[in-house]
């Protein structure tokens, strides 16, 4: 599967609205988060993931859409996940800083 972390299975598929993406080195954490966010897109008909075998360190993510390309749906989902992760990190760091400040006052 080359050295790329993301490949498209059966890239010769004619319909851009149906694709299976293979993420190397990823598992349920990314799969479930992406599936959840991508399914919120009203143009997405189906989004699901599998881990083909526990001994294989890869994730298969299938996306089927009405109009937009599956690649665009994936990009949108990844951007939303990045934004959500950034927000969680910022909120956590603020809470830790506030906690430490209050501990210094005591």
UniProtKB/TrEMBL annotation:
GO biological process assignments: transcription by RNA polymerase III; transcription elongation by RNA polymerase I
Transcription regulation listed as a keyword: no
GO cellular component, one term: RNA polymerase I complex
Domain of life of the organism encoding this protein: Eukaryota
UniProtKB keywords: DNA-directed RNA polymerase, Nucleus, Transcription
UniProt key word Nucleus: yes
CDD domains attached to this UniProt entry: RNAP_I_III_AC19
Subcellular location per the Swiss-Prot or TrEMBL entry: Nucleus
Main location: nucleus
Example GO molecular function: protein dimerization activity
Domain spans labelled DNA-directed RNA polymerase RBP11-like dimerisation: 20-90
Record-linked InterPro entries: RBP11-like, RBP11-like_dimer, RNA_pol_Rpb11_13-16kDa_CS, RNAP_AC19, Rpo11-like
PROSITE patterns per UniProt: RNA_POL_L_13KD
PANTHER family named among the record's database cross-references: DNA-DIRECTED RNA POLYMERASE I,II,III, DNA-DIRECTED RNA POLYMERASES I AND III SUBUNIT RPAC2
Family designation: Belongs to the archaeal Rpo11/eukaryotic RPB11/RPC19 RNA polymerase subunit family.
Protein's recorded name: DNA-directed RNA polymerases I and III subunit RPAC2
Source taxonomy: Eukaryota, Metazoa, Ecdysozoa, Arthropoda, Crustacea
Gene that encodes the chain: EOG090X0LBP
């Amino acid at each position: 599967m080359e050295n790329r972390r993301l490949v498209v299975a059966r890239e010769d598929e004619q319909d851009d609205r149906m694709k299976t993406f293979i993420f190397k080195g990823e598992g349920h954490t990314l799969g479930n988060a992406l599936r959840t966010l991508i399914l919120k897109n009203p143009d997405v008909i189906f989004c699901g993931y599998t881990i083909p075998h526990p001994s294989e360190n890869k994730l298969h993510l299938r996306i089927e859409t009405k109009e937009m390309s599956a690649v665009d749906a994936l990009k949108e989902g990844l951007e939303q996940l990045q934004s959500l992760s950034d927000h969680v990190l910022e909120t956590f760091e603020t809470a830790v800083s506030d906690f430490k400040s209050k501990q210094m006052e005591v």
